[in-house]
Design goal:
By secondary structure, the protein is of the alpha+beta class. The protein has a single domain, classed as Chemotaxis protein chec (3-Layer(aba) Sandwich). It is built from five helices and nine strands. The strands form two sheets. A seven-stranded antiparallel beta sheet has the order 1-2-8-9-5-4-6. A hairpin with a 2-residue loop joins strand 1 and strand 2.
C-alpha cells in the first residue's frame, strides 16, 4: 500500500477468514490508511460488483462514485439497474476496535462468501472474493479469452 495525491493506493492479495459472525479483520497494513470521519470512526462502504465479488471503499473514495452514478439518468434502464445494484446494496461499515468489519448476511450471500476469502487491492478500493471463486477468476485472467490480449493492450510492456 502506498499513498498518492488522491489518497491511499491499495494493492496486493491477502488471504483471510470470515469468523462465524461474518466479521473480517482488515490487515493492519491497511488500517492506518483508512481515513477517519468527523466522529473519529474509520468508515468504509461495502457494496456488490457484477462479477459476484464485493467492493470495499474508504467512504471518501466511495462518495464521488455514488454522486456520479446518481447524477446519471434513471430513465436509462441499464443505468438504473447499475444504480440499484451498486447504491442499493451499499452498506456503511466501520472498523471496530479490533480492526474488523461486519459483512452482512445479504452481501455474504451475494458474493458466495463462506469462510476463506481473498482481499484484493485495486487502487482506491478492495475487492473481496470467496477464495475458490478468486482462484477461478485468476485462472480465467491468465488465459486471455481467445488467447489474445485485448487491443487496448497493444504495445503495452511490463
Amino acid at each position: 500500500m502506498v499513498s498518492s495525491a488522491s489518497g491511499p493506493v491499495f494493492r496486493g492479495v491477502t488471504h483471510l477468514a470470515l469468523d462465524a459472525k461474518g466479521r473480517l479483520a482488515v490487515p493492519a497494513k491497511y488500517r492506518d490508511a483508512l481515513q477517519s470521519d468527523e466522529a473519529g470512526q474509520r468508515s468504509l462502504v461495502l457494496t456488490v460488483d457484477p462479477s459476484r465479488c464485493l467492493l470495499l471503499y474508504p467512504r471518501a473514495a466511495w462518495e464521488p462514485i455514488q454522486a456520479h452514478l446518481m447524477r446519471l439518468s434513471s430513465f436509462n434502464e441499464p443505468i438504473r439497474r447499475l444504480q440499484r445494484l451498486l447504491v442499493g446494496h451499499a452498506d456503511d461499515v466501520d472498523l471496530d476496535g479490533a480492526g474488523r468489519i461486519l459483512v452482512s448476511p445479504e452481501l455474504r450471500q451475494y458474493a458466495g462468501l463462506e469462510h476463506d476469502v481473498v482481499l484484493v487491492g485495486q487502487g482506491n478500493k478492495f475487492e473481496l472474493w470467496d477464495a475458490p471463486r478468486w482462484q477461478e477468476q485468476t485462472a480465467q485472467a491468465i488465459t486471455f479469452s481467445g488467447g489474445e490480449l485485448p487491443p487496448e493492450l497493444d504495445g503495452f510492456s511490463l
